[in-house]
Write a structure and sequence with these properties.
Blueprint (H helix, E strand, L loop, with lengths): L1 H15 L2 E3 L9 E4 L7 E9 L4 E2 L2 E7 H8 L7 E7 L8 E3 L4 E3 L3 E4 L12 E7 L6 H9 L2
Parallel strand pairs: 3-6
Antiparallel strand pairs: 1-2, 2-3, 4-5, 5-10, 6-9, 7-8
Length: 148
C-alpha cells in the first residue's frame, strides 16, 4: 500500500509540475513536494492509505497515530506539512487498471493540514476529520503551493 500511495502522489505531483523527494533519514514524514515557482518552494507530507470505508457525510474520519499527529501539527512557517490519505480498493487487483488508452489509479486521495491543532490526551491514535472537498489533485496541489 505504501508504494502505491507514493506512486499516486507522484502522479498527481507530476501532472501539476512538481517533484516528490524523499529524505533518507526517518523524520516521521514521507516526503516533500517541491516547486521551482509559486509562493512556497515546498510542502512536506505524511502519506497514509486505507481500504476501509472512512467516509462520513461531507468528510472522512481517519484514525491517525498520535506520533504522526504531533509531527503534522507542529507549526513550521517555512515548510508547511500536510497529511495525504489515499483510499484504495480492498482487492489489490483493483488498485490499477491499464489499457492502451489509459492508466487508472483507483479511488481517491485527500489532504489535510493539521498546523496549529491542539495537543491531544490520547496516547495511541486521534481521529482526524478531512473535508471531502480536500481532494488531493493537481489543482488543489497547485493552490497549496501558491497560496499563503
Amino acid at each position: 500500500m505504501e508504494l502505491f500511495s507514493l506512486a499516486y502522489i507522484r502522479a498527481v505531483a507530476a501532472q501539476a509540475g512538481y517533484q516528490v523527494t524523499r529524505d533518507e533519514t526517518d523524520t516521521g514524514l514521507d516526503g516533500m513536494l517541491k516547486s521551482d515557482t509559486g509562493f512556497r518552494a515546498a510542502v512536506e507530507f505524511q502519506a497514509k492509505s486505507t481500504s476501509r470505508d472512512i467516509r462520513a457525510g461531507n468528510h472522512l474520519r481517519f484514525p491517525l497515530p498520535v506520533a504522526n499527529y504531533e509531527i503534522l501539527r507542529a507549526a513550521n512557517p517555512a515548510i508547511p506539512r500536510i497529511l495525504i490519505v489515499i483510499l484504495m480498493p480492498r482487492d489489490t487487483l483493483q488498485w490499477l487498471n491499464q489499457s492502451e488508452r489509459e492508466l487508472c489509479l483507483r479511488h481517491c486521495a485527500y489532504w489535510l493540514s493539521l498546523a496549529g491543532e491542539p495537543a491531544v490526551p490520547n496516547t495511541t491514535s486521534v481521529t482526524v476529520h478531512i473535508p471531502a472537498a480536500n481532494v488531493f489533485n493537481s489543482e488543489q496541489l497547485h493552490s497549496l503551493m501558491w497560496n499563503e
